[in-house]
Amino acid sequence: FQAEDGIRDRSPSRGLGDVYKRQPTGNQDRRRGGARRQRGFTLLELLITLTITTIGMLGVLSLHLSVGRGNDSAARSAESVTVAKDTMEWLRSLRYPDMLAALGNIAPALGTPVTVTLPTSAGRAGMTYRRQVVVTMLSSDVATGSELIRLRVEVSWTEDGAARVAGDGFSGGRFDHAMAFEFLRTNREAL
């Protein structure tokens, strides 16, 4: 059976309504010798997509490493604050003569700072914190026997993997960090 539009219908007819049941589609024309449309991706398209995805993933990895280093640095800074506060509290808890004895029986002179190096303090993950106390006498009253001193607790540390170089610094000071806290102390126990 052939309909008016020239399309041959090979299915058995079920009545007059079947004449118009099939409409020509673009695919039928292509199958008869027209240009065929290919499906899927070409190799070039896949390589370009893979390259762009790889560059994006490298950026994400770089960001991840940078955030990790920042977190490590913040954790070390917080730990050094704890080491400095613990040292301050230890010095505050001692009576004045005991504190001077614990610092090596120092006798600070008016206006002249005395630096005392304390044993290092071990932190998490093998981090070592260097501690120093700088004692400076601010005033001394011979008549009353009172003395006022300033204690500066300095804590310093070096980033992991930094090589020690000559002097007190590490890698030219690029990886060195330090923080300090100060407080005042008098030999008058009641104050």
Question: How would you portray this structure in words?
Answer:
- With 191 residues, the chain is an alpha+beta fold.
- It has helices at 26-31, 43-93, 96-102; strands at residues 114-122, 128-141, 146-158, 176-186.
- The protein is 34% helix and 25% strand.
- Strands 1-2-3-4 form a four-stranded antiparallel β-sheet.
- A hairpin with a 4-residue loop joins strand 2 and strand 3 (146-158).
- The chain is built from three helices and four strands.
- The mean pLDDT is 80.
Estimate the global geometry from the Cα principal axes: rod-shaped
SSE order: HHHEEEE
Number of helices: 3
Multimerization state: single chain
Approximate strand percentage: 15-25%
Structural class: alpha+beta
Helix content class: 25-40%
Mean pLDDT: 80
C-alpha termini separation = 117 Å
The spatial strand order of the largest sheet comes to: 1-2-3-4
Low-pLDDT stretches:
none
What is the CA-atom radius of gyration, in angstroms? 41 Å
Secondary structure layout plus pairing:
Blueprint: H1 26-31, H2 43-93, H3 96-102, E1 114-122, E2 128-141, E3 146-158, E4 176-186
Antiparallel strand pairs: 1-2, 2-3, 3-4
How would you summarize what this structure contains?
The chain is an alpha+beta fold and 191 residues long. The protein is 34% helix and 25% strand. β2 and β3 form a beta hairpin.
